[in-house]
Amino acid sequence: MIQHIVDFALRQRLLVFAASLALIAIGINSYRRVPIEAYPDVGDTQVQVITQWPGHASEEVERQITLPLERVMNAVPHQNSVRSVSIAGLSVVTVTFADGTNDYFARQQALERLTQANLPDDVSPQLGPLASPIAEIMRYQLVSCAERRTGECSDEDAAADAKSLSELKDIEEWVVERELLRADGVADVASFGGTLKQYQVLLSSTLLSARGLTLGDVESALGEANGNGGGGVIALGPEALNVRAMGLLTPDQIADVAVATRDGVPVRVRDLGSVQVGYRGRLGRVSVNEDKDVVAAVVLLRRGDDAQAVLGRVHERIHDLNTRILPRGVKLHPYQDRSQLMELTTHTVLENLTAGVALVTLILFVFLGSPRAALIVAVTIPLSLLSAFIGMDALGIPANLLSIGAVDFGMIVDGSIVMVENIFRLVADKHAKSRSSRW
Q1: Residues 6+ away with beta carbon under 8 Å from 81
Q2: Do 165 and 74 form a contact (C-beta atoms < 8 A)?
């Protein structure tokens, strides 16, 4: 069989040359289409159930949240293990599934089981993002150009009013995250740092006791005053006006909320304490380079997506944010980007491949003593790689830079060297026989 193939190839040289050119063209096209991974995703299919219960100790979280969730998650089909972590105010239950389990099937099964868990009324468990342990593709921070100039800031931005950490935090949560999540392939945007603005009511226990009120009475009054309500419709000639009550209160309006009535006189919040603008208690700060307190975030890649393509879409969103969406004086500044690592790694891999091919060709020329034979053997290296890219493109397998960088050229050219040496031997034997026949 092999002899017939060799004979056919020798007789049809133009056809073999055309097939080689077609292989090269298809291989180059497949190389451009195959997604490249800087890190192989070898993690199992997992689903995380995250539950927040502020103000409760880890023992309460374990007993009332984690254990009921573990009980229902043990019945999820195709699961291999259920692990959990319970700390103060937080429960994380991780369900690991068998190899080959579809991510969306696993999440759907976990959602169905969540409804069967007997949890406290004020607890709302949520599934973690559809991301792998190596999903982090970018880190960025929001910069107030009046305080710190970056490459994205212009002179007009630097002349704008400085933004506080609370304002930057609001912009991050209500503007930036919404825009970045619109990029296809982004699983989640996890922000941290900054301060969260609050309207704080500071009550006096003495004033509460003097009027016979409790903290619950104040909470109930504020909750009722802070809600939106509809009052029907008022007909005004040919028009109709909708009547509604808006619950957007300012600090002065909060102070005017009536909590109760004593002897026909309303007792307002200002009579029981004071109202001020403050911030939620902080558990830490975020520092980037020399900036001691910043608003930053992490962009997570959706499991199974191409990191390079998703990063391209994220950069488009960032350009759009910096040019026309963010307020003047605020810019989004990426300070860690996987694309830089992928470009550097790709350059290193291509450099190693080129140097390896050149070195193998030189060694073959030295040992074989024939430039044509060395070139024939060396050509099998790029043809083998292009054939591999065609197969990966057809099967949807991404290219792993770690594996490509460790390609063994000796194994690739081993068969070609054996064939060339055998050809040299046969040619030498033929010449020897012809000489002996002459004599």
Answers
A1: 95, 96
A2: no
**DSSP at 268:** E
DSSP H or E segment with residue 335? strand 330-337
The helix (H) or strand (E) run that includes residue 278 is strand 273-279
> Which pTM was predicted?
0.75
Query: Helix H segments across 277-306?
Result: none
Q: Which domains does the chain have, with CATH numbers?
A: 2-39+342-438 (1.20.1640.10), 46-127 (3.30.70.1430), 136-197+281-338 (3.30.70.1320), 198-279 (3.30.2090.10)
241-297 pLDDT per residue, tens? 888 877 778 888 889 989 988 888 899 999 999 999 888 888 778 888 777 788 999
* Buried-exposed string 254-283: b where 16+ CB fall within 10 A, e elsewhere: bbebebbeeeeeebebebbbebeeeeeeee
Most confident option among 207-211, 236-240, 245-249: 207-211
Q: Which pLDDT score is estimated for 409?
A: 66
Q: What is the mean pLDDT of residues 179-189?
A: 93
Q: Which residue has the tokens 């945007």?
A: 189
Sheet of strand 295-301, all strands in order from the earlier edge strand to the far edge = 186-193, 295-301, 136-144, 330-337
Element holding 271 (H helix, E strand): none
Which region holds residue 348: left if phi is over 0, alpha if psi is between -120 and 50, else beta?
Answer: alpha
Distances 58 to 51, 69, 87, 333 between C-alpha atoms, Å: 12, 15, 5, 37
Question: How far from 348 is each of 182, 210, 217, 246, 405, CA to CA, in Å?
Answer: 33, 76, 67, 61, 8
Distance between start and end Cα atoms, the chain? 37
Q: Is 179 helix (H, G, I), strand (E, B) or coil?
A: helix
Helix (H) or strand (E) holding 436: helix 409-438
Q: What count of other Cβ atoms lies within 10 Å of the Cβ of residue 319? A: 12
Place of tokens 């922000």: 191
Q: What is the pLDDT of residue 30?
A: 87
